[in-house]
Design brief:
The protein is of the alpha/beta class. Helices cover 46% and strands 15% of the residues. The chain contains 16 helices and 13 strands. Bound molecules: uridine-diphosphate-N-acetylglucosamine. Uridine-diphosphate-N-acetylglucosamine (UD1) binds next to helix 1, helix 5 and helix 10.
């Protein structure tokens, strides 16, 4: 039997891995090993989300934790290579664009193992975002690439990557669809109008920027009750900037620890709007048709603007936008239908049959 490794390390990876591993486990045509790099180690960002997704426990945890990008990437490479040397798989599947993604892909490639990249071709053409470099490098060494929308095939074509590129749809939406098929739960935080999540260095690593966000939060909450689940990176900075007290004082702002995956989806579906800098949330909000205000200069997910409910905004725009009518409607984006993992599985089955044992 051929062996496949599925690599995940950070919260958004697990959401993308779950639907695919479940199919591989059900079909039992291959041996599969689920490896957690441990990039995210807080319970809320790893263990709980894995449970919440009904994903089986990782077979191995490399336990790399936090550190500089170079630390994270090199540590995953060294530790993962040790695993590879014990027994080489036929294929390594990596997801998204986090440091663990490029690190595992490169370690595999350098050991002569084929690499599949799920969520390939995303580009924002801004190297200031650490993920952009990860995306480009991962795609450049991948042997088989799965894209969430047609736009990503065009991006790859511009870089002369045309072989084994498959437009399969958005695998994150598989997890969302499967969640709402089974659950129709009421939100834990009722009477909330909107949600805010922030974790990108450009928004939360500088005191002055975060102070402006705080001032705006004071303004927005005059009209809306907002729930703010705080990412550990953001929390650490708020404490460092000595802004926690002021944040806690804001009326109508509900400050909470990161929500579980299911809790978050329920709140998102229940809210009138979301303000975020996350990539995945732009997609989930678009699918659910919730107005999404993305606090970034660019996005690697333009389909969420063209066909979804996403808008790139500056801090100063948000107040005006929040005073307009906030429409909500489920959006139809091609192949965002809950069947992406199935499509990937069928393609990989054929691809793996062409690889020699
Ligand atoms: C990472 C990904 C980002 C993804 C995000 C989702 C990269 C370059 N970035 O960003 O693409 O959108 O995950 O959450 O891979 N920390 C904790 N506990 C944890 C994890 C992190 O306290 O479990 C704190 C640490 O201070 C750490 C900081 O957050 O230094 C940043 O963590 P890191 O994994 O480097 O990146 P994220 O900001 O989480």
């Amino acid at each position: 039997m051929k062996t496949i490794h599925f690599i995940g390390g950070a919260r958004p990876n697990f959401i993308k891995i779950a639907p695919l591993i479940k199919i591989f486990d059900k079909e039992r045509l291959f041996n599969s090993l689920f490896i957690n790099t441990g990039q995210h180690y807080d319970k809320a960002l790893s263990e709980n989300i894995i449970k919440d997704l009904n994903l089986r426990k990782p077979d191995l945890n490399l336990g790399i934790g936090s550190g500089s990008h170079i630390y994270q990437i090199s540590e995953v490479m060294i530790k993962y290579e040790r695993i590879l040397l014990r027994g080489k798989p036929d294929l390594v599947v990596v997801f998204g664009d986090v440091n663990s993604t490029i690190a595992a892909a490169l370690a595999a490639k350098k050991n002569g193992i084929k690499v599949a990249h799920v969520e390939a071709g995303l580009r924002c053409y801004d190297d200031n975002l650490p993920e952009e470099v990860n995306r480009r490098l991962t795609d450049s060494i991948s042997d088989i690439l799965f894209t969430p929308s047609k736009n990503e095939n065009l991006n790859l074509k511009k870089e002369n990557i045309t072989k084994n590129v498959f437009f399969v749809g958005n695998i994150m939406i598989d997890s969302l669809v499967s969640f709402f098929k089974k659950n129709n739960v009421k939100p834990n935080f009722s009477n909330i109008d909107g949600l805010i999540t922030l974790h990108r260095p450009e928004n939360v690593d500088e005191k002055s920027k975060f102070e402006s966000i705080l001032k705006n939060l004071e303004k927005w909450t005059k009209k809306y009750r907002i729930l703010f689940p705080i990412h550990p990176r953001t929390k650490k900075n708020i404490i460092k900037f000595k802004l926690l007290k002021r944040l806690k004082k804001i009326n109508n702002l509900n400050l909470v620890s990161p929500l579980s995956y299911s809790e978050f989806l329920i709140q998102l579906k229940d809210s009138k709007f979301i303000i975020t800098d996350s990539g995945g949330i732009q997609e989930e909000a678009s699918f659910l048709g919730r107005p999404c205000f993305t606090l970034r200069k660019n996005t690697e997910r333009p389909v969420t603007i063209k066909m979804g409910s996403n808008k790139l905004v500056k801090l100063s725009d948000i107040n005006t936008l929040l005073n307009k009518e906030l429409k909500t409607k489920m959006k139809k984006i091609p192949k965002w239908d809950g069947q992406t993992a199935e499509r990937i599985f069928e393609i990989l089955k054929i691809y793996l049959s062409t690889l020699k044992l």
